[in-house]
Amino acid sequence: MHIDGQCHCGYVTYEAEIDPADVAICHCTDCQQLTGSAYRVTAGTARENFRLTGGEPKLYVKIAENGRQRLQFFCPNCGSPIYTTGTDEDALEVGIRVGTINQRRELRPRSQIWCSSALPWIGDVGRLPGRDRDEAPYA
To answer: Domain-by-domain residue ranges, the chain?
Structure first.
């Protein structure tokens, strides 16, 4: 599937070819902190299928529990996380942050990892009352 996307302010843009079946949720505490949310949703693809088409992202290097380096790329202007990759053999794969993909409504996660770190209320979200639009000042 061909996708394209950008950060919130539009400075960093990209395009890629992905397999819609390769979309996953990560509940690890690093992803919770890096997103400022309960979990991270990522679409994986091979490095050669991903291409930046706009401004250059900024890099933050995170050291994983297993000692591997995870390269976190985000917009230097608005701070939106865009994608991640690794070093050595891990550099062959890119994880694109689903929230930046223009076709995100067509993508459904197919798996979850680090479920032991999932926040205990995650399964209750669908039962919460909701509105079509947010009226709160903190969105």
So the answer is: 2-119
Question: pTM for this structure?
Answer: 0.89
Domain 2-119, CATH class in plain words? mainly beta
Contact 12, 56 (CB under 8 A): yes
Low-confidence ranges of the chain (pLDDT < 70): 135-139
The pLDDT assigned to 73 comes to: 98
In 3D, which of 41, 44, 20, 24 has the Cα closest to residue 32? 41
Residue whose structure tokens are 């996660």: 109
Q: Are the C-beta atoms of 82 and 74 separated by less than 8 Å?
A: yes
DSSP 70-104: EEEEE-TTT--EEEEEESGGGGGEEEEEGGGBTTG
